[in-house]
Amino acid sequence: MSLVLNIYKKGDTKPSFTGTDVDGVTITSLAARTVVVKGEYQASHTDSEGILEESDKVDVPAFTVNKAKAPAPTGVAAAPTDDGAQVTVTTA
Q1: Other beta carbons within 10 Å of 90
Q2: How far apart are CA 13 and CA 6, in angstroms?
Q3: Where does the record place the region Disordered (predicted)?
C-alpha cells in the first residue's frame, strides 16, 4: 500500500492534482505572478488500495508563481548597412 498525495482547490471534492510524497505534486496552469494565499489549495493523503479513509485536509502554504521568461531569439541574422547592420530574428 502506498500513499497518494492529493491537492484540492479549496472547496472542491475531487483532487485537482495527485502525486506521491517522494515525487511531490506540481500545481499547474496558473498565470505568471499569481499570488496564491494559504489555504487556496489543500493537501490530503489517500492510499492506493482504498483501505484507509482519506486524511484530514491541510492548507498548502502561500506562494507566488514565478515571473514568466521571454523566449530567447532564434534565427538571428545581420545584414550589413552603410553604417552598421540591420539585425532581424525569427522566433519559434
Answers
A1: 9
A2: 11
A3: 73-92
